[in-house]
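Hi team,

As requested, here is the filled-out complex form for the adenosine monophosphate run. I kept the field names the same as last time so the parser does not choke. Let me know if anything looks off before we queue the next batch.

— J.
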Amino acid sequence: MHVARTIIETRVAIGATHWAGDTVGLVPTMGALHEGHLSLVRRAREECDFVVLTVFVNPTQFAPGEDYAQYPRAEERDLALAEAEGVDLVFAPSTEEMYPEGALTTVHVDELTEVMCGPSRPGHFDGVATVVAKLFSITMPNRAYFGEKDFQQLQVIRRMARDLDLPVEIVGCPTVREPDGLAISSRNAYLSAEDRRAAPALYRALLAGAGVASRGGRAEEVEETVRAALASEPRFQLQYVEARRPDTLQRDDLPGPPLVIAAAAYLGTTRLIDNVVVEKDSPR
Ligand code: AMP
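And here is what came back:
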């Protein structure tokens, strides 16, 4: 497995891969790898000849006051896991390599970034879109793999790729959960034992909302159901729950699916997000 620290090294290795006619699959991460990340790597490994994993804690996607400094970092372990999964190249650049002084360009996706996590995380999606655009430019993937766990991020990236005619197929992968339903996240490590016990209530509340959606409920009823279900777990501080059309993240007056039901909530100082997608033809 090749570990590259510089853009030029990465371009040379991947250029040779394309030259040989092989397809390149990209899995962008911020490291501290867990089963969610590894599910993306495995999917890429199945579908592509050459798998690139990027490990970069991107400072521009953390709003002021967020956990950039405390974000878990575990490079040695990440490299061992990547190697065991058959990753071909890890791109793990420094902040200076990715953001040399004087950069003036930001990628902004409108509308999709103004709802759900947008208002509470100013600048977050610009940071994500910009770093992912840079990673696409550096690694030239045929396919790039993202988790549905971060549903809004997935839709923002899909839209960016479409609007900028980026020659990459965006592949969304299902959320990997703990046996009790909690979506796996690097931030789960911050939870106290009591908060960890309470945490699966978020997914259960979303499933209650999904039941209402699949029976033809309106977005407001779905959201009210989730709020009511989560109220039984007083440790949660709900930030938002929103039921929206999955592709546009907009609202309309028609009842029932397709809907993405997404929520963000604090347990102590840890912010959890999760979502459930109810497809149009889901069983009632
Ligand atoms: P992160 O390191 O948190 O930026 O995540 C890197 C990628 O892994 C993103 O595409 C996430 O959506 C995805 N991911 C994170 N957690 C999960 C999970 N539990 N299941 C599936 N994908 C995930």
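Two things worth flagging: The two ends are 47 Å apart (CA to CA). The chain has nine helices and nine strands.

Thanks,
J.
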